[in-house]
Structure formats: C-alpha cells, structure tokens
Write a structure and sequence with these properties.
Elements (H helix, E strand, L loop, with lengths): L1 H30 L1 E7 L8 E5 H4 L1 H19 L2 H26 L5 H8 L5 E5 L1 H24 L6 H33 L6 H10 L4
Antiparallel strand pairs: 1-2, 1-3
Helix pairs in contact: 1-3, 1-6, 3-4, 3-6, 4-6
Length: 211
C-alpha cells in the first residue's frame, strides 16, 4: 500500500515540478527577442526593430499564464480542472512548438511579419535561436506534465477530496448529535415517569386522515 501511495506522490510531484520548470522557461523566453529587423538602406540612422516571442505568437504569450494555472490546478483543484488545464496546456504548447520550429527552420515568411509589424521591405531579419530553443524545450516539458496530469490525476489526492471527506464527516457528526439529543430527551421523560413513546403515538394517530 505504501508503494502505491509513493508512486502516486511521485507522479504528482513530477508533474508539478515539470509545470513549474516550463512556467519559468516559457516566461523567460516569451520576454526575449526572437527576431530582429535591421534596415540596411538606412543603417546610418540605426533603424532596428526587435520582436519578442510574445509579440510573434499568441500561444507563446499565454503559455506563462497557462503554466501558472496548471500548476495551481495540480496542487489544489479537482480532477476535472486538472484535466481541462492539462489538455489546454498540451494544445497550446503544441502550437507554440510548431511556431518555434517553423521559425528556426525558416519556414515562416518574413515578408508576412514585415507587413504585420509595419516594417520596411528592405529590412533584413535575423533570428535569435537561444530563446526559441528554450521555449521549445519548455513546451515539450509542459506537454509531458499535461500528459501526466491527464493520465495520473485519478490516483492523486487533492484538497477537493479532503473537502468532500470533511463535509461527509460533518454530516455524520450532525446525525450523531441529533441521535444523542433524542436519547437524552427519552431518558429525561423516563425519569419524570412519562412514556416517551406516547407523544409519537399521538402524532402518528393525528397524522392519519379521517374517513
């Protein structure tokens, strides 16, 4: 039994650590410059435009927030929210990985970026690979954490189940307290020489409809 509990704790701990690592990696890479445009025709003016990762892709921009939400869900939320956040993480991270790989392999048309960002057609683009690679690694780790969350969350113990157990325990305690009160009243009636069941008999007789 202890081995099963240890395995469950390890899977949850692994998912949380992976989510935190990806959160840090994606937050850093999203704030870094991914692409720079320098206009050679007017180089003497120092015309340069730097674009961070969050400016290039919406998926890259939302990854840090999604990583934070997924980490919190894994720690305290119910199974449903863990699965929802994990699936959202997998999809979003997959989109970000696709964009990062396309940028590294120069599959993305820089002309489209120039038009989108209002940059001169003569400006030459240069890609900064380090933050792009960090984002790719962070996304892959994030996807792994999401898969662990989807597959292993039924065996995790969270605050939601603790709350359910506490509510059930409070309900049982309330029923026991009501039973104690009824028993106390019955003994008090016997001490007074009264029949404690007489009132119940009268109540049952008055509750019957007359023919």
């Amino acid at each position: 039994m202890s081995n099963v509990t240890d395995a469950r704790s390890r899977s949850k701990g692994t998912a949380v650590v992976a989510a935190v690592f990806s959160l840090i990696a994606n937050a850093w890479s999203a704030s870094q410059v991914w692409v720079s445009f320098a206009d050679v025709a007017v180089a003497t003016l120092g015309l340069r435009r730097d674009l961070a990762g969050r400016e290039l892709s919406t998926a890259v921009a939302v990854l840090p927030l999604l990583g934070l939400a997924t980490t919190v869900a894994m720690l305290v939320a119910s199974r449903l929210w863990v699965r929802v956040s994990a699936l959202a993480s997998i999809v979003t991270a997959g989109i970000a990985v696709g964009y990062a790989i396309a940028l590294l392999t120069q599959k993305i048309q820089m002309a489209g970026l120039r038009i989108q960002q209002g940059i001169s057609e003569t400006a030459q683009a240069s890609v900064h690979p380090i933050p792009v690679v960090v984002c790719t690694l962070g996304c892959l780790v994030f996807m792994a954490a999401g898969f662990i969350g989807v597959l292993k969350v039924p065996s995790w113990s969270g605050l939601s189940r603790r709350y359910q157990r506490q509510s059930a325990h409070r309900g049982e305690s309330r029923q026991i307290s009501d039973a104690d009160v009824d028993g106390t009243q019955m003994w008090a009636a016997l001490d007074r020489g009264e029949d404690p069941t007489a009132g119940e008999s009268r109540d049952s007789s008055t509750s019957q409809p007359r023919l």
